[in-house]
Specification:
Blueprint (H helix, E strand, L loop, with lengths): L10 H14 L4 H11 L4 H5 L1 H4 L1 H10 L19 H16 L7 H4 L5 H10 L1
Length: about 130
């Protein structure tokens, strides 16, 4: 099944992904990355940017958010050494293996569908 831009994961698919990354987050860096996307309000840009490279800001953010996600990794200088593209390729492969979805993106984890009222207004304006 080929996914296109704007398509979301179903609740069942999200639950399956959550289960997989929760089990693997301590041993697999992609799973840790996806777990952080699901558990925080950070975007991929933030996770691979300041959160990744600055242990002090990372610790401060996690303390302010009352999250005990990375206690063992607070002082690690660089959590995610690969590029966004490398993680995206790995993510697409993982989604195909885990839930049978081809062409998955990280945005499919966070995007929320438009409320029905908004959709109805857009249809009426056409």
């Amino acid at each position: 099944m080929k996914m296109r831009r704007g398509i979301l994961f179903t609740p069942d698919q999200l639950e399956e992904i959550r289960n997989k990354v929760s089990a693997l987050k301590t041993t697999d860096e992609l799973s840790m990355l996806v777990y952080l996307i699901l558990s925080t309000d950070l975007k991929m840009k933030d996770l691979l940017g300041w959160f990744n490279k600055n242990p002090l800001k990372r610790r401060e953010y996690l303390n302010n958010a009352n999250l005990d996600l990375l206690e063992d990794y607070e002082s690690v200088p660089l959590l995610f050494p690969k590029t966004h593209h490398a993680y995206l390729v790995q993510w697409k492969r993982a989604c195909k293996d885990w839930i049978g979805v081809e062409g998955a993106t990280f945005e499919m984890l966070k995007r929320k569908p438009k409320p029905m009222k908004e959709v109805a207004v857009n249809i009426e304006n056409c």
